[in-house]
Amino acid sequence: MTSYLMELRGLIGSRLLLLPSVAAVIHDHAGNLLLQEKASGEGWSLPAGAIEPGETPQEAVIREVMEETGLTVTPTAILGVFGGKEFRYTYPNGDQVEYVVTLFRCQILADQGSWTDNETKSLRYFAREDMPPLALPYPLSALFS
Asked: Staple 70 to which of 46, 112, 134, 144, CB 3.0 to 4.6 Å?
């Protein structure tokens, strides 16, 4: 959690926080989707995270993907913007969020070989028919467009 979010949590506790964020859709050469297995045991998700103060959504998705996957990417398209009650999530510690997510298609430029944060347990590409459930209900049409 960034110092900005920690400061907000210090003021509001675990109450619902509307959080601008980004997520990355990254495919391999066969069209399989890259997912991140969370180290916290929360299952699988897209590489994603909050936009920090002063950061553009494009900068945020590049940073989050690097931290969580070790991949250097460039965003190539906005696939949609998602939010509302379906994008509410309660973390195991009780913190409540409602994400407003800008979903980017990203192209890999380089692979650093490892991620730098402690949120990632593993990375894996999935075919559409083999997708595990995700914490947030992104439409498959956006993930495999």
From this structure: 112
Q: Rounded to an integer, what distance in angstroms lies between the CA atom of residue 112 and that of residue 71?
A: 6
What angle (nearest 5°) sits at the alpha carbon of residue 18, between those of residues 12 and 22? 130
pLDDT at 135: 85
Q: pLDDT for 54-95, tens place per residue?
A: 999 999 999 999 999 999 999 999 999 999 999 999 988 999
- Is 0.85 topped by the overall pTM? yes
- What number of CA atoms fall less than 13 Å from residue 141's CA on the CB side? 1
Residue range of the domain that includes 7? 3-128
The DSSP output letter for 65 is H
The token pair at 142 is: 């956006």
Tell me, what amino acid is at 8? L
Is residue 134 assigned to a domain? no
CA-based nearest residue to 83, from 102, 65, 96, 64: 102
